[in-house]
Amino acid sequence: MKHWFSDGSFRTILRNASYLGSSNVVSALLGLLALACAGRAMSPALFGTLVVVQAYAKSVSDFAKFQTWQFVVQFGTPALERKDLARFRDVTGLSFGLDLASGAVAVVGGMALLPLLGHAVGLKPEDFWWALAYCTLIPTMTAATPTGILRSIDRFDLIAVQQAVTPFLRAVGSVLAYLFHLGFPGFIATWYISSLVGDMCLWVFAVRELRRQNIEHALRPGLLAPARRIKGAWDFVWTTNFAHSIWSARNAGSNVLVGIVLGPAAAGVFKVALTFFDAAGTPASLMQKSFYPEIMRLDPSSTRPWKLGIRSAALAGGLGVLVALLVILVGKPLIGSVFGAKYLEAYSLLQVMSAALVVSMAGFPLESLLYIASRQRAALVAQALAALTYAGLLVGLSHLMGLMGAAIAYFIGTCLEALFSLIPTVAAYRQRHTLSFHAPEEAR
């Protein structure tokens, strides 16, 4: 372990993760406060409706969005290392163009599908217009270019600040809605405004940082022209887009599927369990966000990025065991005190899902390692197989076993995703001598 911490890249990953962690701890507490206010102020059915509305908009944005932050990191970080600002402008310009195009398509598609899917997800006619208005957030939710810019420039401290803005505003607004009995309209307005302001802050930080770095015209949107100058661009963006669409169906889409099968009240309980699960898995999430940009600065044909992945996985897996035990010990009284006795069923789900926590945390480096080896298609196949299996299990087991069936399906899906990603990662490591440094798009 002492040797691990002598590695500058490993220390950088932990430093950047600590930046994000410092804000995420506060954000998680504020998020719980907001959910607690909503859960106590409204009936389980109305709370579930709020969850479904938010999950629907997020599912649409996740399904349509390109992972432009990964594109900027994959192609822009090596360009900055070489001081090739023209290349970096092409990368960010194409990324911004993709954000604009996908945002426009997503908001139109989301609004058009809502009348058809509203009844299926449990929306009542009087809540339809609230859900339609919430869909106008979709364009800002699809944009990921500023996140990629800040990660490439190594300004994780600014990302940490931005990540606290939305939960802070949401918590303040939720407390006011609870105290003044503003009901469902007050809470959905709070969710909307906090998300919008938080997304806008990210753009402000990215623009300011580009000016500080003297990188001009980096946000001139383009599609065809910059793509022609970046070999492998379309292959990468489409593959990661499909992979993330699958991921969204497995995560944000879970609440929608549970709402369809078991109703809005069950979706609200499942949302509580997922909120605790996501909060508990924050350490691995933060390490992944700092791990990917860092290994893009390393030679994939050497053993260094692969050893860095093993060390990061071992550290995250060990933390996962401790966090899972903590969830089991304090989860029940915490849910009861925060949300009330009517949501205690979520603790039974957490007991099953805590095992998945260890697997997901230990497996976080796999996707990034596949990307540096230009095996993004293998990552897509792994996620697709796992997601299809999970979706089938979620619907089937929910019908048979209720919410406990949904928790079991979540655990199996997490294990399958890790297994399906591990197999091509091992193969890529064995063929690492064929990879090129700072030219990942050319490696096959």
UniProtKB/TrEMBL annotation:
Q: Which organism was this protein described from?
A: Luteibacter pinisoli
Q: Which residues form the signal peptide?
A: none
Say which domain of life the source belongs to: Bacteria
- Cited InterPro entries: Poly_Biosynth_Transport, Polysacc_synth
Instruction: State the membrane topology.
Output: Multi-pass membrane protein
* Regions crossing the membrane: 20-38, 91-116, 128-146, 313-335, 347-366, 378-401, 407-429
Establish whether keyword NADP is in the entry: no
| Record's keyword terms, sorted | Cell membrane, Membrane, Transmembrane, Transmembrane helix
Descriptive protein name:
Lipopolysaccharide biosynthesis protein
Any GO CC annotation of this UniProt entry:
plasma membrane
